[in-house]
Hints:
The chain is an alpha/beta fold. It is built from 9 helices and 14 strands.
Amino acid sequence: MTEILALPAFDDNYIWLLRARGFVAVVDPGDAAPVLAHLEKSGDRLCAMLTTHHHGDHVGGLAEILACFPVPVFGPGIENIPGVTHALAGGERIGLPEIGVEFEVIAVPGHTRGHLAYYGPSIGGDGVIFCGDTLFGAGCGRLFEGTPAQMQNSLAKLAALPPPTRVYCAHEYTQSNLRFARAVEPGSIDVQRRSEHVELERAAGRPTIPTSIRVELASNPFLRWDAAAVRAAAATRLGHAPADAVETFSAIREWKNRF
Ligand code: ZN
Ligand code: FE
């Protein structure tokens, strides 16, 4: 059985740890300290590191960890991340034999141009996706390097995963994202219920991640370009009816940038 643990880092990042058979792999080690502390305390042995994109809060710990544990590092080839030993472009299958898991690598450009997501269909029964800063709880990443069309296409790939798939994103942004989701769909019972639930979880100091594709499809305005209420909200921002999913997504993303 593969365990997945969160190591909180910085203000609102999660470094994810996959753990089985006395080994761990880490996803997006932005900071070395919590990873090294876990290894020391647990006696777990590090076997690999996975990175989704080049931003410092996702790769900043690589060098210091590699100095102690020279393990394979997977990451997007076009982003030139120092320490990456296995450059990926999306479409590959990678295995972590020590832990006994396999991932399908999915290219999800938009937040950055080489952003990757790691999909483990047989992990934890329902399957898991590590999606970095592409899909968040009730939100999505900013478009730093990509176009709205790229990001909408990337999000559509994630939206097409089986609904029970557990979504492990890299930030705890769900509560503030839901404030925006309520503005987009003020009449949505799903958004309302999720907001109430997330308020309670955060008040109790609990993470809202993982979420699931099912929950995101119901309440994340950045996956709901086909919903009448979201199209209507986009139309209000644009001053005309959106032509397609990309224009709807783009209008909602622009709105969120100013929200
Ligand atoms: Zn980022
Ligand atoms: Fe980030």
